[in-house]
Amino acid sequence: MADNDDVISTLNDLIETSKDGEEGFRNSADNVDDPQLKAFFLRRSLEVASSAQELQGLVRSLGGEPAESSTIGGALHRRWIDLKTALTSNDTLAVLNETERGEDVALNAYRKAAEKDLPINVRMVVTRQLEGAKRNHDEVKHLRDAARAAAEVH
């Protein structure tokens, strides 16, 4: 079994990834005009924020100091979404492409964490949140595919 410091480090990595996702979904909402897509992104941002809070609680319960912010890479990714959206004619498709890329990162982080030998209570939370990351990724991919098909028709 991973020692306490390794578990805290793993959870803090997921917190940072979740903070990236929370801010990324909020940024995506800011970069689309479609009200339904905007609402989707805002809902996902709130859900991911809740996941980060749950992970922070786990870190505290293990005697650690939880991460409070996103990563530099996540901030750069959000700026890339802003730039790409400004430079492309189909901003919704560009935002969905970049949002999916961000969800790829989250999914990989959760898969990596789930492979570790974590305490059962931590493993249960990580596994449940991994399912949420898969759902987010698949929903964004579906929306992206639909936007791509609509763009090809026009």
UniProtKB/TrEMBL annotation:
Domain of life of the native organism: Bacteria
Record Pfam families: DUF2383 (PF09537)
SUPFAM superfamilies named in the record: Ferritin-like
Domain DUF2383: 6-115
Protein's recorded name: PA2169 family four-helix-bundle protein
Protein source organism: Methylophilus luteus
